[in-house]
Task: inverse folding
């Protein structure tokens, strides 16, 4: 049986058991413990190839999943990489990226980060704030750079992940960019322009207005139009296909700048989100709450952006589809967490899946239909490959989960689980 499109490609359910990368999820939980981030390696590669087959140079936004093993896969697949800090630069170089394929971002780069980038010989530094002056101070000469511009365009997404609007902290205003372009210091060789409009964008339409802002700044050889392609978190989402997205933006770019340009795109989540799932163990069930052994320490997205996910049990089928937003009970009312269990027409029950953290916002899914979960069950949340591991934290002293790659029935731990000793390892 196939699972919904938000799960990794080629994952499936056999005899009610969820299988990812050829590995039985319940067995993975037994072998490696929970919570655990599980990634289908072939899915990462397939998505890299879908993007890279098009007319743009694909620069993986590594903040989405800053995991050396994933970076290595993308380096092998010939992608370039976007790093937004000295730490991400370190990871990308460790993973084997050619420095020439590294694009350095950040609205608050330190002198030290710029020095590391210039010394490593990175391909492009994307100038924001006073970066050009900082590169001058470091004695750099002729570093290939793009200028990050605020295009002044709003997008239809959560305010927390919108970045192209006038009030954004990212980039130079068109006037500031024009001044830098007119009189650049010898430290920089400005070869092109950049913007990033925001994340979880379902259409390329806002790019049409945004490129007009860049056009007014002159003609360049390189345009980097950022990331942001939406992914499906629940089966209700209808995200674009990578190929369609690349073609749509390429057309917009070619219309504005001509076809004789190098176009860079920076997908982050679209390369990794649906390649990964999180496995949790159910630690308690009371009223309509299913409590699991993770929460806002391994997935902050529901709390920060109201992000909605699906879930299923790893070893048995739900009577109806495993959740999604706004599931309605038999009387048509939307179920509220904490209320009485609602039984659907076929016996499924609706629950809120909550984490183990000392905060009321620690709710991973506010409403999901599950088949009578009990303590010890393994719960799977799909589409957690992006910004889960990336934003994991130790709140409440919870060790961060491992990352496990699965391929052809073989599982390998690529990032080990943190230990309690790790929690005290930095104490002086
Ligand atoms: N390029 C630049 C310059 C960016 O700032 C970002 C994301 C991307 C590319 C990739 O965006 P993506 O394709 O992944 O949407 N923590 C938030 C996401 C913040 C993204 C920040 N920048 C989340 O969990 O949704």
Result:
């Amino acid at each position: 049986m196939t699972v919904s499109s938000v799960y990794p490609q080629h994952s499936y359910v056999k005899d009610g058991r969820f299988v990812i990368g050829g590995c039985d999820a319940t067995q993975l939980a037994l072998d490696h413990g929970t919570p655990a981030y599980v990634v289908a390696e072939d899915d990462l590669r397939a998505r890299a190839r879908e993007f890279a087959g098009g007319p743009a140079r694909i620069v993986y936004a590594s903040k989405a999943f800053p995991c050396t093993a994933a970076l290595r896969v993308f380096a092998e697949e010939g992608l370039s990489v976007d790093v937004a800090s000295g730490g991400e630069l370190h990871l990308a170089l460790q993973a084997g990226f050619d420095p020439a394929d590294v694009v350095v971002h950040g609205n608050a780069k330190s002198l030290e980060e710029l020095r590391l980038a210039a010394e490593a010989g990175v391909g492009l530094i994307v100038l924001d704030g006073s970066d050009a002056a900082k590169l001058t101070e470091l004695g750099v000469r002729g570093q290939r750079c793009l200028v990050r511009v605020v295009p002044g365009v709003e997008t239809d997404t959560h305010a927390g992940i919108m970045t192209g609007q006038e009030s954004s902290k990212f980039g130079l205003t068109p006037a500031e960019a024009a001044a830098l372009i007119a009189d650049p210091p010898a430290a920089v060789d400005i070869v092109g322009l950049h913007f990033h409009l925001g994340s979880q964008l379902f259409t390329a339409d806002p790019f049409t207005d945004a490129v007009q802002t860049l056009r007014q700044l002159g003609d360049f050889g390189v345009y980097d139009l950022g990331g942001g392609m939406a992914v499906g978190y629940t089966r209700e989402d209808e995200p674009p296909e990578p190929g369609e997205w690349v073609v749509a933006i390429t057309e917009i770019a070619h219309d504005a700048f001509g076809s004789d340009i190098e176009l860079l795109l920076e997908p982050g989540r679209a390369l990794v989100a649906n390649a990964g799932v999180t496995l949790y163990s159910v630690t308690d069930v009371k009223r309509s709450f299913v409590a699991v052994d993770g929460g806002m320490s391994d997935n902050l997205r529901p709390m920060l952006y109201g992000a909605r996910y699906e879930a299923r049990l790893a070893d048995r089928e739900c009577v109806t589809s495993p959740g999604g937003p706004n599931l309605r009970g038999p009387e048509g009312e939307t179920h509220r967490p904490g209320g009485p269990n609602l039984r659907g027409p076929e016996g499924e029950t609706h629950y809120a899946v909550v984490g183990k953290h000392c905060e009321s916002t620690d709710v991973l899914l506010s409403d999901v239909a599950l088949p009578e979960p009990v303590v010890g069950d393994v719960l799977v949340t799909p589409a957690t490959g992006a910004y889960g591991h990336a934003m994991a934290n130790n709140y409440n002293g919870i060790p961060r989960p491992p990352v496990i790659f699965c391929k052809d029935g073989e599982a390998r731990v690529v990032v080990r689980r943190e230990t309690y000793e790790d929690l005290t390892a930095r104490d002086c």
In short: Confidence is low (pLDDT under 50) at residues 321-342. The first helix runs from residue 25 to 32.
